[in-house]
Amino acid sequence: MTETTVAILVPAVLREYCQGAKQLSLPAGTVRAALDELERRHPSLYRNVCDETGAVRRHVNLFVNTLHVRDRDGLDTALAPGDVVTILPAISGG
Amino acid sequence: MSDRVVLAIGTKKGLFVAEASKTRRSFALRGPFGSGVAVYAALIDARGTPKLYASSCNAFFGMKVLRSTNLGKTFKETKSAPAFPKEDGRALANIWSLEPANDRKGLYCGVEPASLFHSDDGGDTWDLVPGISNHEHARKWQPGNGGLCMHTIYREGDRMHLGISTGGHYLSEDGGQTFVAANQGVGAGFQPDPYPEFGQCVHKIAGHKDAPGRLYMQNHGGWANWDGPGGPRPDIGVLRSDDHGHTWRSIAKGLPSDFGFPIVVHPYDADTVYVMPLEPMTRTCPGSAPAVWRSENGGDSWRRLAKGLPKKQSFFTVLRDGMDIDELKSPALYFGTTTGQLWMGRDGGEEWTCLFDSLPPIHCVKVAVV
User: Do A92 and B91 touch (CB under 8 A)?
Assistant: First the structure.
């Protein structure tokens, strides 16, 4: 069986936590598996996206291609080869 | 030789550092560092080569600890920030206090939800201190308006005092291994029982190295007219202990309000203590005229210090870590406001000057002579 490889797009503000990479390539069949892989390969970057309980931080949004994961199956959203997972900070603050 | 006065100013939009000679005639401002991100805790660690630390409480990407080894000219993140073990179930929401520990590079960090972490390598790695973080009361503490925060870490040898809002005062007498709630005489206005074992909304605790066993506390006062269960509880807001915090008594008589946040002790006189009374409902200065109040006899009487401060139409709050005092021969007091002014009171608060008038809302002010 061929392993699913997806792209993770990293926002500029977080690139210092992955040696400046704008995009990462990870093997993962779901968004949850992608985050697990992110934790293994780039723990500092992962900690910016998820808190220590494993929950995605409140003001961080994850998209698979153009859809927010909450509009699909959350962290269980299945990933297909070539899918793009985008990490984006929410528009919030003051 | 220590010849620079350095201020670390934590604001809603990052950390600022101000530096002056010992004359304090002119402060140069640097920053913001961690720009745009709230800073609730700062530490100027004067042990050995001075280091500055600041919490950087990023609402998007979580908590960081910033460290500077060049007196606040540049800052870098430490290798990690405090974090609960995954199986604990709690997640760090804020960092409220940073204090030196016994060991040379040791640090303590008080966080929200109220817990304590220790680092033995200057903030690169952190371990949960279980004696308080997993205390049997810990899951019963309630968050105050600012969150469930551990804001005070004060050490006297092997004794450690912690202030938690709202948890109360916790005391360790074995170097931080075990803790007991020590709140006898510390009132709570928001519970039917005026003097519960724990759960008080302590705002800040301060002590003095020359008076071991004596502590001062700014508690959540403002309950003189309370007519609910338990009845009124006047003067529970400003307290003193003379037995290492086992028991407390009011020293609020003579103040215009027993509500406030910071409490600061003079560096060379354990009898001299400063508070900034606020109206309990608005949390602004009584009569919209700011003043620091000073006692020179351990809280038996108080004097208003307002020369140079606005006489009217001032509606700021000074938060729990928003006031500090330097250690020059004639010490100056400093406070930062939620409206972004940083004030300096020469001669122990006798005469006030506004050093900066348009900073972001100020959360904390720390000063050291280095």
Answer: no
For residue A90, which residues of chain B lie inside 8 Å, CB to CB?
Answer: 60
The interface residues of chain B toward chain A in range 36-65, judged by CB-CB distance below 8 A, are 59-62
**Probe site for chain B from A46, A52, A60, A91 (most B CB atoms < 10 A):** A52
- Residue A48's closest chain B neighbor by CA? B61
Q: CB–CB of B89 and A49 under 8 A?
A: no
d(CA B117, CA B133): 8
Report the alpha-carbon distance of residue B298 to residue B296 in Å, rounded: 6
3-state secondary structure of B50: coil
Nearest to B86 among A53, A59, A60 (CB): A53
CA–CA gap between residue A53 and residue B87 (Å, rounded): 7
Cα Dmax for chain B: 57
Hey, what long-range contacts does B172-176 have (CB within 8 A, 24 or more apart)? B172/B131, B172/B132, B173/B244, B175/B102, B176/B116, B176/B118, B176/B129, B176/B131, B176/B132
B86/A52 touch (CB, cutoff 8 Å), yes or no: yes
Q: Is A55 in Cβ contact with B61 (below 8 Å)?
A: no
What would the two tokens of residue B304 be?
A: 């208003």
Question: Looking at chain A, which residue has its C-alpha nearest residue B37?
Answer: A93
> DSSP state, A14?
G
Q: What is the SS3 assignment for B116-168?
A: EEEECCCCCCCEECHHHHCCCCHHHCCCECCECEEEEEEEECCEEEEEEECEE
What is chain B's pLDDT, residue by residue, as a tens digit (370 residues)? 789 999 999 999 999 999 999 999 999 999 999 989 999 999 999 999 999 999 999 989 999 999 999 999 999 999 999 999 999 999 999 999 999 998 888 999 999 999 999 999 999 999 999 999 999 999 999 998 889 999 999 999 999 999 999 999 999 999 999 999 999 999 998 888 899 999 999 999 999 999 999 999 999 999 988 888 888 888 899 999 999 999 999 999 999 999 999 999 999 999 999 999 999 999 999 999 999 999 999 999 999 999 999 999 999 999 999 999 999 999 999 999 999 999 999 999 999 999 999 999 999 999 999 9
B62 and A54 in contact by Cβ < 8 A?
A: no
Interchain contact B83–A (C-beta under 8 A): yes
